[in-house]
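Exam review. A common question shows you a sequence with its structure tokens and asks you to describe the fold in words. Practice with the pair below. Do the first one on your own.
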Amino acid sequence: MRKINFISISSAFLFIIMFTACSSTKEFPLFEYPLDWKDTAVREKTISEYSQFLSGKKIFLDPGHGGEDRRNTSHDKLVIEADVNLRVSLALKKYLEQAGVNILISRDKDATVDLGYRSVLANNSGADLFISVHHNAPGKTEDDYTNYTSVYYHAKQIDYEYEPCNQDMARYIERDLSYVMGNPVGLGSFDGTYSDYNIYPGEGFSVLRKTKIPAVLIEGGFHTSRLEEMRLNNEDFNQIQAWGIFRGLAKYFKAGIPKIFALTDSTKLDSNKLSLSFLLEDENGINHKMISVFFNKQEIEYTFDKSTNILKVELEQLTNGTYPLRIICANKNGNHSLPFHKSIVVSNDAQIEIRD
């Protein structure tokens, strides 16, 4: 009687299964649709819920490049950064306006806007925030694999020009943008936010250095990546990118932003001493361990009453002149106050004025 070789049959059966599985290749989506975006009703409900934190705000959007500046492209020239920047910005504009935000924008079509003029427009706009939208490229032209999402703020923590509120905003945007895109944050940062001094030491990006209101610059991904370029010309994906930025901004405002009020705008020197008082206000509570005061660009001592949220500064031996005063504080959620800069003006009659 002939014996059946079960091992051979099993091997052949396994081969057939493997061959069948491999021959019917499964297609995987290039990106996921966020659950709070995919369904229109849920999307509208989410925007409505976030509107309580966004309504009445004024935001300046800056789609990078455009017009005569269309040189940044993918390796196959099919993805043009200027166009992707504009599509993402216009989608973000729509979401923010639905939430009650007043939007100003440097361009709403393929047009040339000089780099320096973008900051002029932002500074004259009266906007609360400035957001510049870009997509990245590596230093080496042959690099077609590097891809991550990042958000830049101006200067570094050791620099007087550094405003911590900019990095706060960058962190919120980066977290949700990176999440909806499914992108990593890069090896140069633990949270995906970077100082622009990393790119241009001591100077940073022009639009961040010259813009006087709180500002960040977004690099939504690398248009040179062979994988990312497959997604960046997809309008659904561009809207999802905008959705991530929108959610990050909404959560940033939801966490609260402390406000600082000078309790007097003029006073007099008393025995060559000056005492100034400021109210620090936030519904989430002020973190008294995260307060800094600078006078004449030097950090100085202060007193803070936790029961009244009154901060007091005493200055001595002031001669005639103008002195810069700067205060930074944070709430218990870790969000810092927007830039608070005043000028202390001492005149001949010992009269003191506090000016913006």
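Now try the second one, then compare your answer with the model answer below.
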Amino acid sequence: MVVAVLGTTISPYLFFWQAAQEVEESRLRPGRRELLKDPEYVAEHLSRIKQDTIVGMTFSNLVALCIVLATAVTLGGKGVAQIESAAQAAEALRPIAGEFAFAVFAMGIVGTGLLAVPVLAGSAAYAVSELFGWKAGLSQGFRKARGFYLIIIFATGIGTAMGILEVDPMHALVWSAMVNGVIAVPIMVVLMLVGQSSKLMGPHTISLRHRVLGWAATAVMAAAVAFMLATSLS
């Protein structure tokens, strides 16, 4: 569960989504490439990215904390430890939300899906497209970036099929989070090496503080994965 929580917090899609969006924006605005040579513009742009990241991560972790606390008070307080479906979770909320429990839970699931599908499927499409050298980007038409859009369609289709086949969504979420935690470790190592490489980053290498914090986070992720594998095989 520790690896699953870490894999959800530091998920590999985060490493692709914002970077891909930055590249796509540069492609849509050719004049921006010249601006990137201006130190003042770069400093201001990186400052905006930093503020956006801090605000986004603060709110996302606050929401996650509220979910954990709400689950502990409602389901945990009732002694419900095994949830195998969204319907069962909604039913467990009936003592608090009353007859609207299912509607409230359904709204949350639909809202989460509308947020997650384009981001998660999109980041996977960006990663696969970059791997094979395909044209990618939500600004591209389907004919120009067929592989990119087919990956999004395929990923969404898999999720839909899992729902039709009644695959346990709770276990699927935990397992996918665990896989994310394992995959995140080598990606974080590569990102740290790239970030501190003056050959690749030029004057924009990460600071000493970010190197210490970054490698510390990588070490924590690696230790959690190693402990999980050791206890699972023993």
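Model answer, second protein: Residues 1 and 174 are 8 Å apart (CA to CA). Residues 39-76 form the longest helix (38 residues). Full marks require stating both points clearly.
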